[in-house]
């Protein structure tokens, strides 16, 4: 490694809170921390050179599946200067937005809004990869080792900072099912995950036959985009999914109450085995397809029947991929099984898009230094308390908070943008031992249990909280 500039001077300080990862959730926390009066020294690290939110899926016209009020701050602090409405005002676009009457904004606009917030906040360190987190019992602090990266992602300098508390927001990574993994290791035939779709769109459109695998929102959007780009009668598209139908997302008003603080508190109080049974059964709450997208697909298919005939597009739910392989390095053969019929078949295709979702990014290596202190559930997952803290040994006086790593303890709302601001406010209330962001005591008409669980008026303080200060 060549000699390079030393890490930023402010990283030599002891911080009250160090955030690992700068996605929407930690960006929300940083924006909310910027708005409280309690002196709080924070630093957030992200290995990417800049903020970027699913760049491969910013398909033209694609919108968020949550209203614009689910920005980084509004649902706990609508007067924040980091609200989406203030972003529009700063761009002199507030009146056009008002007349557009759009409750669900474009994904590209959400990405631009988050970059605006990231550019305006201090204490965000892009191009910094966190390598390890340890607890130093002598100092009563967390040690955070990091590598400063150059614009090409190469190591430039090593550094270490200290923190009283940590918040882990490293997010998820693309998931490729085992039978399909051999396909993505060669560039001979385009087999890509949906997260890289736009980066390979032109290559995909040049393929003779394209198969999309995955029956969620991303699969639907990609199928629709490919369908619109292919000539009528020569679409040559297959869309396969494991679910029993290309099903609409549960978007009824009372169904949406599963994405409220009330439900998160109810879910957390359930026995572990009950929680584990519930999550897979609730897939349609967050893994279904937006009804407008389903309607657009049907409209496009129907339009292609107006002159007679049917489009060359096959949509088959209830299908699993058993194995897959390449044919003469230029094509892919998928071995399929219909999960209801029990029948098997083969499909030969020229390109594959894997809209197979995401999985929690592993943190075992990053947190290896904390392993002796971590407490796990019966499935080996970190135990997480109601205030989003990993449960640690009592000898650790600091707290490790998590963002979007607690579906197993808090339910299907964990990855939902609509709960980002609330969870960030919970973390700050717990961290400070105060209530800079008063929590609503009730957020749903539904009573999820026989006894309603309301938010406590006095937040549970971070374990053995030391007085907060600007850093030493």
**Number of strand elements:** 17
Structural class based on helices, strands and sheet pairing:
alpha/beta
Give the topology string: H per helix, E per strand.
Answer: EHEHHHEEEEEEHEHEHHHHEEEEEEEHH
* Cα distance spanning the termini: 30 Å
Rg value? 24 Å
The pLDDT mean sits at 92
Helical percent range?
Answer: 10-25%
Q: Main β-sheet: number of strands, strand sense, barrel status?
A: 7 strands, mixed
Proportion of residues in extended strands = 15-25%
Number of helices: 12
Shape: globular
As residue ranges, the low-confidence spans are 464-472
* Oligomeric form: single chain
Q: What does the model show?
A:
It is a single chain. With 472 residues, the chain is of the alpha/beta class. It is built from 12 helices and 17 strands. The strands form 4 sheets. Strands 1, 2, 3, 4, 5, 6 and 17 form a 7-stranded mixed β-sheet that branches. Strands 8-15-9-10-11 form a 5-stranded parallel β-sheet, covered by helices on one side. Strand 4 and strand 5 (141-149) form a beta hairpin. Helix 1 (24-33) packs across helix 12 and helix 6 (217-229) runs parallel beside helix 10 (291-303). 37% of the residues are buried.
